Amino acid sequence: MESFAAGIRARVLAGTSAVLLLTLPWAVQTSARPRLTEPARPPGTPQGVYLVFPFENRGASPHLDWLSEGLEELAIQRLSAAGESVYSHSGRMSELERYGLPATAKLSRATMLRIAEDLDADFVVLGSFASDGTLMMAEARVLRVDATELLAPVRESGPLDSLMDLSTKLAWRTVSANERSYPLSLAEFSKKQRSVRLDAFEHYIRGLIASDDETKLRNLREAARLEPEWPDPDFALGDLYFARRDCGSALPWYDRVPKTHDHFIEAMFATGVCQLLLKQPDRAEETFVAIQQSMHKDIVSGADLPEILNNLALARAGSGKFAEAQQDLRKAAEMDPDEDDYPFNRGLLALRASDAITAAGYFREATGREPDNPEDRALLILALEKAGKKSEADEERSSAEEAFGPKGLPAIHWDAKDPVVAARLDRIKMELDTTQLQLHLKSADSSAAATGGGAPGPDTAAGWIRRGRQNLAAGQVENADRAFRAALTSEPGNSAAHRGLAEVDRRQGKLDDTVKELQASLQSRDSAVVRTTLARVYLEQKKPELARAELEKALKLAPNYTEAKQLLEHLQNSKPGASKRNGGAQ
After folding, report:
1. What CA–CA distances, in Å, run from 181 to 42, 53, 139, 190, 234?
2. Are both 58 and 112 inside the same structural domain?
């Protein structure tokens, strides 16, 4: 492959509409974990969340298409290194997946704006690049989300082989144009950037975007060879092997990711998963406890994520620590009301303890959270039978046959005395919601920087919302409630604050109040995500027609939104005779 550093000869490099969103919210994988660094920002300078979309190639040479993601990644790295909050490439991809949009989709500004709103991002940056084969020009501009203001473009140009320096200047001018009185000079901004060989960077990006694993591996290994002290290829290689469940190959690459790296927590999480898969529960427990300690150290008020708690519980259960495992799973289930894996795993633990009645209660909760999961229903029937409740078991079996067909339930082979057989049903969380993780880490950093350390609370709506979400992640529901209400005092009608209060109410079982807050959020800003959440609450309230109406509205906003489509399909497939325990759809 002819290296870009050696001088790729293409007639034209084109610019892509790239979206840089200053990170914030709850997407599925987020950006690198940038840290706020000195000098602290002067009071009144806006700081928010950036989301970056690929730069559009407007040129004639498809050989340079890799620069679309390359410029996106450089923008993320540059802003992140300077202390800005930025969604990662993987975070953007996760959000596109939620909407059912292909990775290569060319998005309108309206779609970008809607995605930014659902992510509670503050800014979108649109960009483009072009070249005559020797020189290149890159352009970026900021789209402010709340005020819906598109700023004037900023441009940089230079030789193709000056891409790394050019991208630094472009990122600095972009953030400087958006943030008046931006505290860093170009020289200070540049000093914060990592120096990476251009050929290594090209191999890295080509490895990320390649369509087959062998090409990915070849490019990523070459990037790691050219830049042995650069951990990004190491993490990417670990992830690639991990995706293939080749833990033996993944672990050495993950071990090379330093504690200071943006993806260190993700590398540790995958390491813990591998240790669970390799039947090393003691080592897995150490790993997940270390992740918790790292997060509690980095975050002002401490935080937990349900995926970490779930896997920590399974590790402890593998070592016979069932009481501790149940506590971890209880907290995970409280933090994520839609996920059925956590009560399901609690049911398995109860079965191991020969407490079939308690197990049946957990499996019933799991089926309520995910009515279309036949394994949940099969374990509920098993637990009822072991508890001696034959009539209830028969009723559930009849309902399951109607829902899944005569042979729709999986055969469950259970032996509580054989830990290996029992553990085969354990549901390990294989991925970490790094968007959520990113929010918590950055909101903590932002609060500390804004207050000069650990002083209490921010004084803007955005700051209070981030503190509220941080408190939710730490299980501090009352503190979260106060933070979201403070946000509404600062900015009445703020949709994200109402959305946060809805989550507080839902965790407390106040479904009527949850509905009111979600409706208030929609009055301020329509959202497919919020409407889908509202539909789930209506299902919990046994109001399937209201749920259906919300899902139809959600799909008008985002026609390919996967979660809304799946939930609506479940409603359409529900039959009048179905059990009332199937999540409320009748």
Report:
1. 8, 26, 22, 17, 37
2. yes
Bridge partners (DSSP) of residue 157 are 137
Query: Is 311 found in the same domain as 403?
Result: yes
Q: Is the pLDDT of residue 225 over 70?
A: yes
405, 359, 354: which is closest to 384 by C-alpha? 359
Q: Which CATH number is 28's domain given?
A: 3.40.50.10610
What single-letter amino acid sits at 158?
G
Residue 40 has pLDDT above 70, yes or no: no
Q: What is the DSSP letter of 13?
A: B
Residue reference for tokens 């509690």: 296
Say which CATH number the domain at 498 has.
Answer: 1.25.40.10
* pLDDT at residue 448, rounded to an integer: 41
* In a shared domain, residues 468 and 335: no
pLDDT at site 92: 81
b/e for 277-307, b at 16 or more Cβ within 10 A? eeebbebbbebbeebbeebeebbbbbbbbbb
Terminal C-alpha separation, the chain: 59
Query: Going by DSSP bridges, is the β-strand pair 123-131/56-57 parallel, antiparallel, or unpaired?
Result: parallel
Domain count, the chain: 3
Closest CA to 419 of 312, 274, 308, 319: 319
Residues 375 and 479 in one domain: no
Residue 234 in this model has a pLDDT that exceeds 80: yes
366 and 477 in a single domain? The answer is no
The closest alpha carbon to 21, from 151, 97, 93, 112, belongs to 112
What is the spatial distance between Cα 346 and Cα 314, in angstroms, rounded to a whole number? Answer: 10
Domain co-membership, 552 together with 477: yes
| Across 205-222, average pLDDT | 95
What is the reported pTM?
A: 0.77
Q: Is residue 15 part of a domain?
A: no
State yes or no: pLDDT of 203 exceeds 90.
yes
What type of residue is 335?
M
Listed range (9-18, 234-243, 444-453) with the worst mean pLDDT: 9-18
The C-alpha R_g of the chain, in whole angstroms, comes to 25
Q: In Å, how far are 93, 185, 450 from 467, measured between CA atoms? A: 26, 29, 12
What kind and span of H or E run contains 157? strand 154-159
Which residue matches tokens 């139809």? 552
Residue 406 is part of which domain span? 306-423
Q: What backbone torsions phi and psi does residue 116 show, to the nearest 5 degrees?
A: -60, -40
Q: Is residue 415 domain-shared with residue 488, that is, in the same domain?
A: no
pLDDT at 469: 78
Of 561, 573, 510, the C-alpha closest to 532 is 561
In the predicted structure, residue 453 carries a pLDDT above the cut 80: no
